[in-house]
Amino acid sequence: MTAANTAAPRATWLDAMRSRYRDVYGAILLWAAFIGFGVWAAIAHSDEFTVGIVVGSIFALGAIGLTLIYGVLKFGHFAHGDAMLLTAYVVFFVLTGTVVGERGDVVSPLRMDRLPGASDQIWEFSFGYGFLLSIPVGCVIAFAVLQTLERFVYGPLRDRRVGIVILSIASLGIAISMRSVMLIIWGPGPRLYAPGIRDTTELPWGTRIVSDQIFIVAAALVVVAAIYLLLYRTAIGRAMRAMADNPDLALVSGINTDSVIRWTWLVAATLITIAGTLLALQSQLKPELGFTLLLPLFAATILGGIGSPQGALIGGLIVGITQEVAVTFDVLGAGYKFSVAFAILIIVLVVRPRGLFGSGA
Amino acid sequence: MMRNWSPLTAITVAVITILIIAVPYERSGSARSVVDFLVPFATTVAVFAILAIGLNVQWGYTGVFNFGIAGFFMVGAYTAAIFTKDPATGGAITYIGGWGDDLAFLPFFDSEEWLPHLIGLAAAGFFCALLALVLALPILRLREDYLAIVTIGIAEVLRRIAIEEDRLVNATRGLTGIPRPFGGWVEPENYKYVIFCIIVSFLVLLFVAVEGAARSPWGRVLRAVREDEQAAAASGKNVFGFKLQSFMFGAAIMGMGGALYGYEAGAIAPDTFTHFFGTFIVWAMLIVGGAGNNGGAILGAYIVWGFWSLTLQIQSYDLPDALRIRIFYIRDFVVGALIVLVLLLRPQGLLPEERRVSRWLERRVARLRREERTQPSSSQAPPDPAEQPAA
Q: Above 90 in pLDDT, residue A21?
């Protein structure tokens, strides 16, 4: 009996130490692996590394929106990828006024690229100021759509206290419907914001990239800086972080949760629109792209730690870079591009489930 | 099972049934071709009902999340195919396995007509359970929605592997000419009745088995885990173990559904096992029918696949072009919206879960009622255990 009594506390103490060290080792292992891989990729494959930063900054914008929804509203928003593509199509419509008609495309006369000089290319970019003007219009429409969904779907479900699983299934249903809306209005064929050959620019370290990709990284930097200021320098940002941290405590300390939820959707809608538009600028508009985005976005979110915007930023960059560099390996064909995100997801879930910046399990 | 049919359920079933008989009849004008339409239709409904029952075991009973049904569906179908086919001929057709001849080792009863298929079916279930085990071991202890994204991922990755690895399962060309069980015994044009009987009898057996399991002590623990994990753990139940078992059991059912799909279709390709066709539609079926109820899973499969087939029929009408090119997209939209609408307006589905505690209690209640009837003199009726809330 005495042996059992003395052994029991020692075992729990050992377990506690072991789990604490495992957590620390996991963090060290993950950081070392990704920093090591990043440095090696930047030296050995600088071309793919550069493209990886472009793709990764798009993923980062999407993942920041996803992690905010996850943190504040407490559910995995499986319609995120399709919402990105849908808003990219909305921007496309505002810009070019094109929808698919009975035979071929129908073009409305009300469109941004009809404004005087709107299609004249800015610097070496493939677009003019009409494109830049279309993005805020897209943000407004995206916010209206997401707010409607919140009002009639997510809000009522949350009021019923159904739990994250049902909310995730509902968002999956919405994802299917969004994809069908894209197919109904714009058809299955790929589309571009601006036709024609794109100019390229040579970067100081010798890599030649499409000039639009410089715009993508610059725009992502501006948006990330704005999100940082909003989250860390304003009252509403503090309230959002408080609610992500502990919703009950936020409620009793007098935070207006309805207003926080509205702001979260506003920020998410802006991020979704910009990320979706930049993605379409980087590749093209295709309805199927929305669902394949889910895996990199969730991998980036979980890698960074759910609810952590800076984690989502780092996570998005890591997923983007790894994905672009990994396809240069001979064992992996280009078809496995999106499977790289899955491998990262599994590694994180095994080594350190709460991610690089996550708090708690 | 009939006692929780609501008017809405009856009306939905009636409308779908009338339409899937009337529309093909109107198109063709002969009863013969209506039967030709209905038999393969019912076979496909049975295949999807098997998948929906598999999901019901995972999600309906235990609350374990699986967004990657397409992956298990695919592994099951391919496993059964390489177990029953002849070896690859090389050239443009390359795949592993092809053990059909070796497996027909019994010298009697035409064993090549059914033995490889039976072994393929079992192997499909076994490998899907194994896949579920490997996936669930690191993930199932974590947040409940991590499994959702991991299963989405594995379904996509497996499909990529099937497409990219040329020598594994013949890449995008898929596997054709999968031998059919008892295919040599009947004329090809009558074969649809044979496969219909095979799949429906499997569905009936599965239904009885799963219903029995759900009412056994094992099934009671599953539902306890779903309702309150902490309470179940506090009662000394190994929550992780039960979730793992239910995930593997459901995956095995899905794999066998995939195997039967392969036998029915005779040809499979990676294109079939997309997220939409493999995963979402099964979720729509279970949610429309009613999670936690195997009858609901079958009913949901009937209604959703009925709607699905109707859009195919409607397409052959003289529609305006603008509508005809979009009819499949509209159908997809309705399937997505249906999931959301049912969750909002009728979360229990068309056939709500029956609160059954155990077979033992049901028998006991029945006996007590019988005794009551035979001995009307006994003044006080015993308390009815079934009326108390499920423990």
A: no
